[in-house]
């Protein structure tokens, strides 16, 4: 895709070529000490042409507005130019323009070009992007532009772009700067070319700096080598136009790559700075920091080689084996001028102390209208024509040239397609020959037929955009300067004597590891697998905390969180526990034992965490609370040596980095040198502040570390474990952090004139802003920050529209997002706005993103200088009334609450979250407001969990049951004031709602029995109905003959939901793909209900016989009105009126158990013996043998069990055949079978039912 390429082809008369250019950006002030007038009046120069009018020189008159003078070309078009020769290379810091005196002639915009030789011009760009300068608005005013980066050149050329439409091109020009001096050396690339400098004394320095400038036409070569002892060193090498920093040792290693297109014969600045632990490599204006390999920590420079390949001792090979060919300028090493040193002393190598530059005229094809037409050569005796050129481009396709073959007839096409070079010869509408070259060797292809029905000059290929140079025709160089002067050939929309190619991927504008690719005009970022999205991979696709995931409706599980959003810290995979006791999700980090060492009878244990240091630090700082358990189980092993009569025997390190020494234990305060029992005053020995310090036989000190500045635990040092009989065990639990201070950070603006102000927002190249708002107002400004000309603003422009607008110097740009629903509904809405060098985007809630492309040739940097206003503007107009929450700028959360505490008209915090998040509470869960957020109250639901979405299930065995008893009527009436709970809230209802789900293979079975004190009852049971079928029966007083019998298949997984109300019984049978509704209209009235045990003596005899069989299976989410007996039995057995009989095991009833993977803790045992963290070879062998024996035993037992089961089934089948004739038939009059199958339950494929 890049690099000069030399091409040679044969052909004849005319050439037609085409291509295009684009621009990147940067700004910086010009020092006032270098601003002298460089161009005195009447200094002659060159121009494309000039009118024969009264002439006063290039420059304005001394008074800038008096006297005649100025330049005006004969023809006013964009091919005109004015050139100034400053006589020698000069530092140019500013230019000023004025219109032609006493006329209507002035420029409104222009380009500046610089050159050392009067050829190979380089366009000056502001911000690496802006190519044009704004000019004048009349003939008299002076417009001066300070160059953000001074230009060093001898020649300056000004090219008009636009001028006064009522006049002509007219100009008076002034330049400012100061003289420039330098030392130059030139290398011819030969084997004897180069300089070698040796350090007379090897001295160690904390900082080494090498700076230089270079220019070259060759894209590879060795610039510099620095060698120290043992053959270790660094080298700077050009490779394919990029500068590589290499570590030279036994194997060369690339440390960094910077720059691009460095073989353009223009000066490039390079600096290498070595510090104790890192290197800084700078190419032009871009710097990359590189970590120094460990072996270079005590390395010193002993020899510098410049411009030539020098063999390192113990070195295999270099990336580039070529010497450098080109010029170096101002080569400095630690402030010493090495070129001046080489001049004054004998130097090695064939070098000259001047820079002789070859003249190479390039031409740039900028777009679809660009072409170059040259006269062809006369045919040679052989009938062939040869031509050659070099080209470079970013595009993968485009027509390079075409010409006719007059003698043979036909047309030659040379073009790029899919980054390969193709040559076709056409004649009579057919392709006679087709060749291709590129990544593979050139090879002929089969001819292809084409249709040519038009005689117009048409380009059937893509337009070429790129540069060409060294054009030759029959081995004769084509003089492109004559083309520029219109003395040879013809052209249109070309840039002659310059190559205007730009590398938009160096440095890459793609963030967070996004891969950059480009064409001639644009670049593209591939963000796949980066965890970020957007035109420049700027915005994270992940939430910043578990709290944010919870409010998206997520339950406990593994999630990627990005603690700083669009910041540099990478996402991390963590476990979010959404069901904590504090109603806020918790974030867990597991410690793992990294290393163990023993030193002077001290055991040093170091811990590592799965997250990186910066991820862990930010997660802790933005959490509301963090804790980590630290326990010490001891037997004659003292801990902190309390009271403080001496140094502690053991301690730990905690906090950022490697941590700070902490001499307190879990449950105590930092710096107290106490354990939890010392703080609470209940130690086993009151004279000590830790249980273990009493030196008793066996005890423990444990507790939670909650001081966030001391977390996490990084290492433990355990000391008193070497005495005879002493033993100790430690436990470091997972780090748990809960809450998100940033997520609920909010402010309420109660007036349009109220606002908060913060320091200036710095988002020069990339800016992302996100926040949530809720309001009842129809408009208002959320955020505004102003500059001299630039600004950025986000506002609610109407009740359904959010507007994002900004200006970076190209004029205002707006992105509008409209919602179908009103936004002033007092519900939370999320806004995310982003602006980068490619586009601006705006996202509202979950609506599709709206985007607006940035100008390709425009300003990049957003320059603001005023305060940042939140909730209003500097003019105090159009302020916002409502709440703004979780405001983040480039991943950094602004503390609205702290600023609101000291700002009139703004209140910290913002209540009323259930209006937005209440729908997350499921299954009759009730949303309860909190100061920061909300939680779901599941007390009236049969479910539990953060959103009342987790079923409460119990696995029953035949002898298990749960009884729930209401208080008797006379107790309720006598003590009616003592009804604090909702348990008794349904005592006066005239209709009941019953629901449950079950999972079993047993039939018959009694699932549920409800009775009243008036001998009314309701029973739900399963009756045997064939091998696989069963009947689901509902029996109650007055209901037996009224309810239909529903047949179910135990081998088919169905979900039954039953609702029994005052007027009807409704049941839904639900499968994965369909839902069927069965409704039976009845009048059912129950008075006070009691849920009693089936063992009650008042049971119906038939139900009693069925109850004696027991129930084996699983019942889940059992609910009677607002009462959940299983939930009460499992979660509140001590405070609820429940009686549990037999074993009761909690189950998930149809879903696999989700064991918490973070339940593990780091627990290890220490004793007076020598302790090691690794198993010996003998131990590993024993474990392997035991595992093999266990597998063999398991296989044998499994085989015996299968055989026994088969024999048992054969016996059972014979028994069933004997009694089949006397078995009673199922009938509605006899609701269940006495013969139970509960002893033959199959657990291989249980099914689940919801009623």
Explain this structure to me?
The chain has 1251 residues and is mainly beta. Among the domains are: 36-47 and 61-179, Jelly Rolls (Sandwich), CATH 2.60.120; 184-310 and 322-343, Sandwich (Jelly Rolls); 578-740, Jelly Rolls (Sandwich), CATH 2.60.120; 745-910, Jelly Rolls (Sandwich), CATH 2.60.120.200; 952-967 and 989-1146, Sandwich (Jelly Rolls), CATH 2.60.120.200. Strands 3, 4, 5, 6, 7, 8, 9 and 10 form an eight-stranded antiparallel sheet that branches. Strands 11, 13, 18, 19, 20, 22, 23 and 24 form an eight-stranded antiparallel sheet that branches. Strand 78 (1055-1060) and strand 79 (1064-1070) form a beta hairpin. The radius of gyration is 43 Å and the shape is elongated. 40% of the residues are buried.
In short:
Residues 501-538, 911-949 form the EGF-like domain. With 1251 residues, this protein is mainly beta.
Main attributes of the structure:
1251 residues, mainly beta, Jelly Rolls, eight-stranded antiparallel sheet, 8% helix, 39% strand
Write the layout of secondary structure elements.
Blueprint: E1 5-10, E2 15-19, E3 36-37, E4 46-47, E5 82-98, E6 107-115, E7 122-123, E8 132-134, E9 143-163, E10 172-179, E11 184-188, E12 195-198, E13 208-215, E14 221-227, E15 233-239, E16 242-248, E17 253-258, E18 268-274, E19 278-283, E20 286-291, E21 303-306, E22 325-333, E23 336-337, H1 338-344, E24 351-352, E25 362-365, E26 367-374, E27 386-392, E28 398-404, E29 411-417, E30 420-427, E31 430-437, E32 443-444, E33 466-473, E34 476-477, H2 480-484, E35 490-492, E36 494-496, E37 515-518, E38 523-526, E39 532-533, E40 539-540, H3 546-550, E41 557-561, E42 572-577, E43 586-589, E44 591-599, E45 602-609, H4 613-622, E46 625-635, E47 651-654, E48 660-662, H5 676-680, E49 699-705, E50 713-718, E51 727-732, E52 735-738, E53 746-749, E54 756-758, E55 767-774, E56 780-786, E57 791-798, E58 801-807, E59 813-818, E60 829-835, E61 839-844, E62 850-853, E63 868-870, E64 882-889, E65 892-893, H6 896-900, E66 906-908, H7 914-917, E67 926-930, E68 933-937, E69 943-944, E70 950-951, E71 953-956, E72 961-964, H8 969-974, ...
């Amino acid at each position: 895709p890049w690099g000069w390429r030399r091409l040679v082809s044969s052909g004849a008369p005319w050439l037609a070529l085409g291509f295009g250019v684009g621009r990147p950006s940067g700004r910086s002030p010009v020092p006032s000490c270098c601003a002298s007038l460089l161009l005195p009046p009447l200094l002659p120069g060159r121009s494309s042409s000039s009118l024969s009018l009264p002439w006063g020189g290039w420059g304005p008159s001394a008074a800038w507005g008096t006297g005649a003078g100025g330049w005006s070309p004969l023809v006013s078009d964009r091919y005109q130019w004015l050139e100034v020769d400053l006589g020698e290379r000069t530092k140019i810091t500013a230019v000023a323009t004025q219109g032609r005196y006493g006329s209507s002639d002035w420029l409104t915009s222009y380009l500046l070009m610089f050159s050392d030789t009067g050829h190979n011009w380089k366009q000056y760009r502001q911000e690496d992007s802006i190519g044009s300068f704004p000019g004048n608005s009349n003939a008299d005013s002076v417009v001066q532009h300070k160059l953000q980066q001074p230009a060093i050149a001898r020649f300056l050329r000004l090219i008009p772009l636009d001028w006064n439409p009522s006049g002509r091109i007219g100009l008076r020009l002034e330049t400012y700067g100061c003289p420039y001096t330098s030392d130059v050396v030139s290398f011819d690339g030969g084997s004897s070319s180069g300089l070698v400098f040796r350090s007379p004394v090897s001295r160690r320095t904390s900082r080494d700096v090498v700076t230089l400038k270079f220019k070259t036409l060759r894209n590879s070569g060795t610039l510099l080598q620095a060698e120290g002892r043992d053959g270790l060193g660094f080298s700077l090498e050009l490779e394919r136009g990029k500068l590589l920093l290499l570590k030279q040792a036994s194997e060369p290693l690339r440390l960094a790559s910077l720059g691009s297109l460095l073989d353009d014969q223009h000066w490039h600045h390079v600096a290498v700075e070595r510090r104790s632990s890192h290197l800084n490599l700078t190419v032009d204006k871009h710097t990359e920091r590189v970590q120094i390999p460990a072996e270079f920590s005590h390395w010193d420079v002993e020899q510098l080689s410049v411009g030539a390949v020098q063999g390192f001792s113990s070195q295999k090979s270099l990336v580039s084996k070529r010497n450098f060919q080109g010029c170096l300028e101002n080569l400095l090493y630690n402030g010493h001028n090495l070129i001046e040193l080489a001049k004054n002393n004998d130097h090695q190598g064939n070098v000259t102390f001047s820079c002789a530059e070859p003249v190479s005229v390039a031409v740039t094809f900028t777009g679809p209208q660009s072409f170059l037409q040259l006269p062809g050569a006369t045919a040679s005796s052989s009938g062939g024509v040869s031509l050659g050129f070099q080209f470079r481009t970013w595009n993968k396709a485009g027509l390079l040239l075409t010409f006719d073959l007059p003698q043979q007839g036909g047309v030659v096409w040379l073009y790029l397609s899919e980054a390969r070079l193709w040559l076709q010869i056409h004649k009579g509408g057919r392709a006679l020959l087709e060749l291709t070259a590129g990544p593979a060797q050139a090879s002929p292809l089969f001819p292809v037929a084409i249709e040519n029905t038009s005689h117009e000059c048409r380009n059937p290929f893509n337009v070429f955009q790129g540069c060409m140079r060294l054009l030759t025709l029959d081995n004769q160089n084509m003089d492109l300067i004559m083309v520029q002067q219109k003395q040879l050939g013809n052209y249109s929309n070309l840039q002659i004597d310059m190559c205007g190619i730009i590398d938009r991927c160096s440095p890459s504008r793609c963030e967070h590891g996004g891969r950059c690719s480009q064409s001639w005009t644009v670049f593209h970022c591939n963000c796949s697998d980066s965890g970020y999205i957007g035109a420049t991979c700027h915005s994270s696709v992940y939430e910043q905390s578990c709290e944010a995931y919870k409010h998206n409706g997520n339950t406990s599980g593994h999630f990627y969180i990005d603690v700083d959003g669009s910041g540099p810290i990478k996402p991390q995979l963590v476990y979010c526990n959404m069901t904590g006791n504090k109603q806020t999700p918790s974030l867990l980090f597991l410690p793992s034992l990294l290393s163990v060492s023993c030193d002077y009878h001290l055991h040093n244990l170091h811990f590592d965490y799965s997250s990186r240091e910066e991820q862990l630090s930010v997660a802790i700082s933005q959490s509301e609370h963090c804790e980590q358990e630290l326990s010490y189980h001891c037997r004659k092993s003292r801990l902190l040596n309390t009271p403080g009569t001496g140094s502690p025997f053991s301690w730990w390190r905690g906090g950022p980095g490697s941590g700070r020494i902490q001499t307190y234990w879990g449950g105590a305060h930092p710096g107290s040198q106490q354990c939890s029992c010392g703080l609470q005053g209940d130690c086993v020995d009151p004279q000590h502040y830790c249980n273990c310090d009493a030196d008793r036989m066996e005890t423990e000190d444990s507790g939670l570390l909650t001081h966030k500045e001391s977390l996490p635990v990084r290492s433990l040092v355990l000391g008193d474990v070497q005495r005879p009989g002493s033993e100790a065990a430690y436990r470091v639990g997972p780090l748990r952090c809960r809450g998100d201070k940033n997520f609920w950070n909010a402010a309420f603006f109660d007036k349009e004139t109220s606002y908060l102000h913060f320091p200036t927002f710095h988002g020069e190249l990339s800016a992302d802003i996100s926040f949530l708002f809720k309001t009842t107002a129809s408009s208002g400004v959320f955020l505004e920050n102003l500059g001299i000309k630039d600004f950025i603003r986000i506002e609610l422009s109407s009740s359904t529209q959010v507007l994002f607008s900004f200006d970076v110097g190209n004029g205002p740009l707006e992105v509008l997002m409209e919602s179908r629903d009103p936004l002033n509904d007092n519900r939370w809405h999320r806004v995310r706005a982003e602006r980068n060098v490619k586009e601006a985007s705006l996202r509202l809630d979950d609506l599709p993103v709206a985007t607006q492309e940035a100008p390709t040739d425009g300003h990049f940097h957003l320059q603001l200088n005023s305060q940042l206003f939140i909730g209003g503007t500097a003019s105090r107009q159009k302020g916002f009334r409502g709440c703004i929450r979780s405001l983040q700028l480039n991943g950094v959360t602004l503390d609205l609450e702290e600023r609101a505490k000291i700002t009139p008209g703004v209140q910290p915090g913002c209540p009323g979250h259930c209006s937005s998040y209440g729908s997350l509470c499921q299954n009759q869960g009730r949303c309860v407001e909190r100061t920061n957020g909300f939680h779901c109250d599941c007390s009236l639901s049969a479910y539990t969990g953060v959103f009342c979405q987790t079923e409460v299930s119990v696995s029953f065995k035949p002898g298990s049951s749960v009884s729930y008893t209401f208080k008797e009527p006379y107790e309720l009436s006598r003590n009616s004031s003592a009804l604090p709970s909702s348990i008794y809230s349904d005592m006066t209802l005239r209709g009941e709602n019953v629901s449950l789900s079950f999972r079993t293979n047993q039939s018959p079975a009694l699932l549920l029995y409800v009775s009243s004190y008036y001998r009314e009852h309701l029973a739900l049971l399963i009756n045997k109905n064939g091998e696989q079928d069963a009947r689901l029966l509902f029996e109650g007083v007055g209901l037996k003959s009224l309810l239909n019998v529903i047949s179910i298949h135990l081998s088919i997984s169905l979900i039954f939901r039953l609702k029994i109300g005052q007027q009807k019984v409704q049941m839904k049978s639900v499968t994965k793909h369909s839902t069927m509704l069965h409704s039976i209209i009845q009048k059912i009235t129950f008075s006070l209900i009691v849920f009693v045990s089936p063992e009650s003596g008042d049971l119906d005899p038939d139900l009693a016989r069925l109850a004696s069989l027991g129930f084996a299976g699983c019942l889940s989410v059992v609910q009677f009105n607002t009462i959940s007996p299983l939930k009460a039995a499992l979660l509140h057995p001590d405070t609820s009126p429940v009686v549990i009989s037999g074993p009761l095991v909690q189950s998930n009833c149809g879903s696999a158990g989700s064991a918490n993977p973070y339940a593990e803790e780091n627990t290890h045992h220490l004793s007076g013996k020598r302790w090691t963290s690794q198993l010996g070879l003998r131990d590993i062998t024993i474990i392997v043998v035991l595992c093999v024996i266990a597998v063999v035993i398991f296989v044998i037992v499994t085989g015996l069990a299968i055989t026994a089961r088969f024999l048992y089934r054969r016996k059972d089948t014979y028994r069933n055949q004997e009694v089949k004739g006397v078995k009673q038939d199922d009938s509605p009059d006899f609701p269940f079978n006495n013969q139970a199958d509960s002893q033959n339950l199959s657990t291989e494929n249980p099914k689940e039912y919801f009623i």
